[in-house]
Amino acid sequence: xxxxxxxxxxxxVREHLAALxxxxxxxxxxxxxxxxxAVAGLVIPGGESTTISKLAGIFGLLEPLRERVRAGMxxxxxxxxxxxxxxxxxxxxxxxxxxGGIDMIVRRNAFGRQNESxxxxxxxxxxxxxxxxGVFIRAxxxxxxxxxxxxxxxxxxxxxxxxxxxxxxxxxxxxxxGDHRVHELFTAMVRAER
Length: 194
Ligand code: GLN
Description:
With 194 residues, the protein is α/β, with parallel strands linked by helices.
């Protein structure tokens, strides 16, 4: 029963660990390349993508992360984590790097000032049992996607949940609601890959 890791450089790591456990998975924090090598899948939490990017560089994790993702490790990114899984950021801070893997361009802080934080009930493709309550906190949206990217949910035509193969990303934070269905979906993706 290989654990699912949560990248623990910055952001709401504890909430994702709890949500994974709530979804029936074994979860552990990942800070070092050796820890990354020991997990079957990885969650990249919400937080601040510029900080996560910088710390991933300092901790020597950026290349190992890219390699694992390229090799097919399932990964799920929430909010800042979505940004980390994007091949391209529309408006990056200078020097801001991503792990990449999902053929999409994301716009940071896309919902604007008046609406920086809000909640919305979302129908998410692949998730049964009614809408998922999406908590958006200075969230990105997906500006454009390549052909292999499936949009699972959108707001006003902007994708806010996407999947490409073993990679899943949401603009919102399901780890804050006590509803574990997104983490269950990801846990099932990891189990299917094992
Ligand atoms: N605005 C943040 C960023 O650009 C993301 C916010 C979040 O993860 N809640 O990284």
